[in-house]
Amino acid sequence: MSTTQPNKEAALRLKHARSLTGFARTVFCKKHNMSSNTMAAWENGTTYFSEEAVKKISRYLQQDGIEVSPEWIMEGKGSEPFAVDMRGIHKTHFIRSSLADEEEFIWRTTTSYKEFYKDCLVLIMVDDTALPFYRPGDHIAGKIITLDQLLFIEEEPLIVELENGSLMLRYVEKTSKPGFYHLKSINQNTLMGAQIKNVKIKRAARINLTFRR
Q: Among residues 7, 1, 3, which one has the least CA distance to residue 155?
């Protein structure tokens, strides 16, 4: 039995790369004959995954049109994952119509998500606070969780809505004052400020839908 501790940042990179395929975790695993429970443990950072496992997953991702190196997943080195079939489209004269169609598809999807899940939050990233996992323009959505669940989720970024109505993606840290939290951005070098201290959260959601244009 391995005693190697899981790498939380590598887990987030793995989850991000898999989400770019557009397949839910269960669908991705069934497609490639993998255990969904094992993949969930890897992506949530509760179980260590080896470099050999990542090499295999990288091949599966490539089959689904996502180019990513094992080094990026394990260590964050090299190019971020990208859709192979989209890399050349920006060089064609169809760029405007293609991007417009894609943007419409994303809006339709997020709108349908909000109609299906009435208790959800949808966020469009507009800054650098979530780099390298989420970029400006990314659409992120998730079902709202109860506020008492915040006490048990510290290793996963959440979509949070503050009492003033502002939405953001942050790690949530509990404080000694009941009902108040510290918020920490994924990108600690952000120009927006890496931490927001002692704030009240109106609503929060775990991410289960991501679209990148």
A: 7
